[in-house]
Amino acid sequence: MTAAPPAPSPASTRPGRHRVLWLSTIAFTLMFAVWLMFGILGNPIREEFGLSEVQLSWIVAAAALNGSLWRLPTGMIADRVGGRVVLTALLVATAVPTFLVSRADSYATLLVLAFLIGFAGNGFSAGISWNSAWQPRESQGFALGLFGAGNVGASVTKFIGPPLITGTAGATYFGIIDGGWRLVPVVYAVLLLVMAAVVWFGTPRHDLKPGTGAPLDQQLAPLRQMRVWRFSLYYVAVFGAYVALAAWLPLYYMDNFDVSLQTAALLTATYIFPASLLRPFGGMVADRFGARRAMYWTFGVMLVTTGILMMPNGHITVVHPDGTQTDHLAYELGLVPFVLLVFVLGCAMGVGKAAVFKHIPEYFPDNVGPVGGLVGMLGGLGGFVLPLLFAYTKEWSGFPSSTFVVLFVLTVVCALWMHWTVVHMLHRESPELAHHLDHPTPEEAPA
């Protein structure tokens, strides 16, 4: 006779919940590093294969696309079979194409492998579902923020990539592994397999599966609510834009400020760190003051920073009646103020990412997997679309700062939709709702 698994204990006293949180966060950090490794590998790949900026943007976009497509089913499956199984499977599945990148010999091969490596990005949905099941509701904002801080993995390659590429260029290891940029994916493939073993053997065997037995239509029912799609657009602005910019900034720095790959990587890290490490702080802010207030602050700061960053360097030339010309209102944003503004932009995104996901267990406590999966999927798809928009708008306009025009317009749309929703809800219900914006009530109709 088989012993039944132990009955679930209150979330605040479940043994193993801290191991779930920390090991899933470390695993997600590694997977995020792999997912965005082309941000640093892109320049040596561009030089070796003779790629254009648009071609390189498709490699970055391909990884972002597959890292988003499966977030909804991944979250639902994690709810049904447990995050432990799903996260381990994703770690193993990502290791294979990651290793094969080191053997790539054509642009087409790189595109296919970049797409397959995108499976790493779907680890986010598995981890959100897993931690939502294990962590107590009163601290879910912080817990999900801490897990989401695994986004800092985007900076890992920025630190280890350039010295590893430079220090091993031209070398060969074990007769089959080339040095230079090709060594980086080999190292990551080994780490992914090691991490898969750590997650599998280091977390509780009896996993929590809140979606077990729930009909598919019941799991998908919340997706018919407009607020889910609104949250998804917010996440495009704070996460999709983060993914796109983290991959795009190294090239932006090298092309516009004439710095080395290593310097560009370090400068990009000053954006990635606050955009990732402030996510737990953003969760605490959302826990304390409410997610909508945090989103107002986030969008306000993003509008100011992107509004300045989108201004092109140059001046206004006035042609006088006698044919002479004079230049006025010269404007140029130097490297230091540019880095500072991007740093502040990263801080806002770090808070905003946590605030968006604070909404989900508040409004959909029994459907975190599918709702979080959809929000994560559409946010990640922003990481697919935005690098292409960056490349094509630059090609069309000739202005490198058009990158930030795209982000400014996206933020304006999100901020206006959110504010219209809040004002509409207050006018429809009652002024007293102004003090309860972040806590759904039974009387509140879907907004």
TrEMBL record:
Residues 19-426 form the Major facilitator superfamily (MFS) profile domain. Keywords: Membrane, Nitrate assimilation, Transmembrane, Transmembrane helix. It is a multi-pass membrane protein. It comes from the Bacteria. The keyword Zinc does not apply. GO terms for biological process: nitrate assimilation. Its main location: membrane. It is found in: Cell membrane. One of its GO terms (cellular component) is plasma membrane. It holds the Pfam family MFS_1. The chain crosses the membrane at residues 20-42, 54-72, 84-101, 107-130, 142-161, 181-201, 233-253, 259-282, 294-314, 334-356, 368-392, 404-423. InterPro entries: MFS, MFS_dom, MFS_trans_sf, NO3_transporter. GO terms for molecular function: nitrate transmembrane transporter activity. PANTHER family: HIGH-AFFINITY NITRATE TRANSPORTER 2.3 (PTHR23515). Belongs to the major facilitator superfamily. Nitrate/nitrite porter (TC 2.A.1.8) family. This is Nitrate transporter. It comes from Nocardioides daphniae.
